[in-house]
Design goal:
single chain, 140 residues, mainly alpha, three-stranded mixed sheet, 39% helix, globular, DUF3597 domain-containing protein, DUF3597
């Protein structure tokens, strides 16, 4: 699974209730295995503890819950590094460059500050595209 796919899956299906397929630019539209009604395919529950709003996973609630258990302050709302750490993923520059490549980043990957801001926006956008309810203040 791609790094983006792993991020989306960990947030939208934190209890393994389905496998999100993150959409990347230029790729045919895919849908995840969770129906609009909120149940995962095969009749399995997507984990009763997953906060859902209008049939969508509440991204803010999931990430705030993870942040409250992190044992360190992680600002997932603005930092791609902290978001990746929160999900127990490699947040190194090389991992972020890999994510940038997956998302077709055309900027300078040596300008990590600019790349990081772009990556965070793209990940939030992909979460919304794949069934997440994203807070309005994080939308582009």
């Amino acid at each position: 699974m791609s790094l983006l796919g792993t991020i989306v899956s960990k947030i939208l299906h934190p209890f393994g209730g389905g496998e999100a397929q993150a959409q990347t630019p230029g790729e045919a539209t895919k849908t995840d295995t969770t129906s609009a009604g909120g149940g995962a395919s095969g009749g399995a529950s997507s984990g009763g503890d997953v906060p859902k709003v209008d049939g969508k996973v509440d991204v803010e609630a999931v990430l705030n819950d993870l942040a409250s258990k992190a044992g360190q302050p992680l600002n997932w709302r603005t930092s791609i590094v902290d978001l990746m750490k929160l999900l127990h993923l490699d947040s190194s520059l090389s991992a972020r460059k890999e994510l940038a490549k997956e998302l077709n980043y055309t900027g300078d990957t040596e300008d990590s500050a600019t790349m990081n801001v772009w990556l965070h926006k793209q990940v939030i956008k992909k979460l919304e595209e794949n069934g997440g309810k994203v807070p309005d203040d994080l939308k582009d």
